[in-house]
């Protein structure tokens, strides 16, 4: 069975359907308190990329936040394959989002009930990765907390990133870079920062408070990217990029400083996937 590929598809409580027909309970803790984690997985020509890495991070995040373990890998892989078929993404690109929350609240307040059941749902749609250049500011209002366990998990709460993005847009920029609580460069609103400096690829260290992004970690494991403290002011001849599982975007401007762009972001991004 296939669905209309022009409609975004989802799965929840054992049922596939288009978004407008699927419902999440209004008392779900993911909705009420952003008490949930998720993974965003790129589908390249019908094949989910770095799926094991995403599922491993998902499980680790659940453990860090003392949530129940998400559904098993075997079951999820089967469901993802079914979704790709239903969405008719066998030969095109797309994106999958996996969601895991502590489920429905059984009482008012943030206290966690020991008897509530966790909730899972999946979203799938066609998608093309983004390699366009952008302008950025360094946010003056938002900073990452390098001491918080939340910084190492991909949680539902993106309020800080939203506020920093609003700040950037109000000043005529595309996005914002975030410092951490110690004033060190950390990450962007929805992506990791990588810097090409004298033919070396650098990224802020994991203890900076940045999310341990899958593509960032892929570059580290391939011995392409090295962790390093990076000052907020770019050096001459630096190339700066924002990278995540759906994009690799060269930064053409940080505050008032113009940056050069000579590396092909698409080629570099695909090289991390070993395409």
Automatic annotation (TrEMBL):
Q: Which InterPro entries match?
A: Aminotrans_IV, Aminotransferase-like, BCAT-like_C, BCAT-like_N, Class-IV_PLP-Dep_Aminotrnsfr
Q: Which UniProt keywords apply?
A: Lyase
- Give GO BP annotations, semicolon-separated: carboxylic acid biosynthetic process
**Any idea of its EC number?**
4.1.3.38
Provide one Gene Ontology cellular component.
cytosol
GO MF annotation list: 4-amino-4-deoxychorismate lyase activity
Tell me where on the tree of life, at the top rank, the source sits.
Bacteria
First-tier enzyme category under EC:
lyase
* Keyword Isomerase belongs to the record: no
Family, similarity comment: Belongs to the class-IV pyridoxal-phosphate-dependent aminotransferase family.
Tell me the protein's name: Aminodeoxychorismate lyase
Lineage of the organism: Bacteria, Bacillati, Cyanobacteriota, Cyanophyceae, Synechococcales
